[in-house]
């Protein structure tokens, strides 16, 4: 496939292209950096060609909404190749280190999210009740049963379904019909040479809840925010959106959307490790589980769910905490 990639680049007028393989994501896509000529990033989606038209279509929506994304220089739907602008290698995550004040970058990420939510969601698949429940059931199948080897009693299974239904209902109680990136977090936001936010990995976008991407950013599996900074950023988003809703109602929307997302993520990280052999995602399970426990304990109606997950918590007590921003 490497030879086919270089031949394709040559057909675009790039002489003797030299490619450096980059660290991939959780999908079947592979990425390469062109290190000669004028540079660029090549996405090889030859094993998932059907994703390329979707990628191009969502990219156009974002461009129309004046959201900064990597420019698409060329693509080949038949081969599954896309040639993109090279933004560099700095992610928002790289700003979340000791000695760097990440707050201005998070403010920019909130402003970018507000702009991103002006993107048309017409025709995108919806985050409806069925899909919300389907995602949460990944935790039951892949985290509890497959990864932990838990055998659920009948009453526990029923309790999980009731808890998931309650969470889905709360997610659906907030404003809907919003363009949702679905993975708007520190590894999918890049910083360009002008210190501006560039959004990547947007091809799985759906139409859904107001706070979904806000949760992805602020309750990131890879970054732990200080409680005061978390609240400041939540309310900054609310202010910039001009929402006429009580702070505590908005935070409840945020919390329950976060629970839905993190319950799903427990299942996805477990599936990536067990089915796809991507063991590195197991290291991110502790923080994800902690989010569920910390938030869920605020709401008595979720006592059963939290008790069940707490019984599995011991093995993670000494896990390293991810980076914090104050």
UniProtKB/TrEMBL annotation:
InterPro entries: Aminoglycoside_PTrfase, Kinase-like_dom_sf. Residues 21-232 form the Aminoglycoside phosphotransferase domain. It comes from the Bacteria. Signal peptide: none annotated. This is Phosphotransferase. It comes from Sulfurovum xiamenensis.
């Amino acid at each position: 496939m490497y030879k086919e990639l270089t031949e394709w680049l040559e057909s675009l007028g790039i002489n003797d292209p030299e490619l450096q393989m980059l660290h991939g994501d959780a999908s079947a896509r592979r990425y390469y950096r062109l290190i000669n000529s004028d540079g660029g990033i090549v996405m090889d989606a030859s094993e998932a060609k059907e994703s390329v038209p979707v990628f191009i279509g969502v990219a156009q929506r974002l461009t129309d909404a004046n959201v900064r994304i990597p420019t698409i220089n060329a693509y080949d739907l038949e081969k599954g190749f896309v040639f993109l602008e090279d933004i560099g290698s700095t992610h928002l995550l790289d700003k979340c280190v000791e000695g760097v004040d990440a707050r201005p970058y998070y403010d920019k990420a909130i402003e970018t999210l507000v702009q991103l939510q002006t993107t048309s969601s017409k025709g995108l698949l919806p985050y409806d009740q069925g899909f919300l429940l389907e995602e949460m059931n990944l935790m039951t199948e892949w985290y509890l049963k497959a990864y932990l080897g838990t055998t659920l009693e009948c009453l526990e299974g029923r309790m999980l379904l009731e808890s998931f239904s309650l969470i889905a209902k709360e997610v659906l109680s907030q404003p809907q019909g919003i363009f949702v990136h679905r993975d708007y977090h520190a590894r999918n936001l890049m910083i360009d040479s002008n210190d501006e936010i560039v959004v990547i990995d947007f091809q799985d976008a759906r139409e859904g809840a107001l706070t979904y991407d806000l949760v992805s950013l602020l309750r990131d599996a890879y970054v732990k925010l200080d409680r005061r900074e978390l609240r400041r950023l939540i309310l900054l988003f609310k202010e910039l959106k001009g929402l006429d809703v009580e702070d505590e109602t908005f935070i409840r929307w945020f919390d329950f959307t976060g629970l839905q997302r993190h319950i799903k993520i427990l299942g996805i990280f477990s599936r990536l490790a067990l089915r796809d052999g991507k063991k590195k995602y197991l290291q991110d399970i502790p923080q994800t589980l902690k989010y569920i426990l910390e938030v869920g304990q605020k709401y008595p109606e979720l006592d059963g769910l939290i008790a069940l997950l707490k019984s599995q918590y011991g093995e993670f007590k000494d896990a390293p905490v991810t980076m914090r921003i104050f």
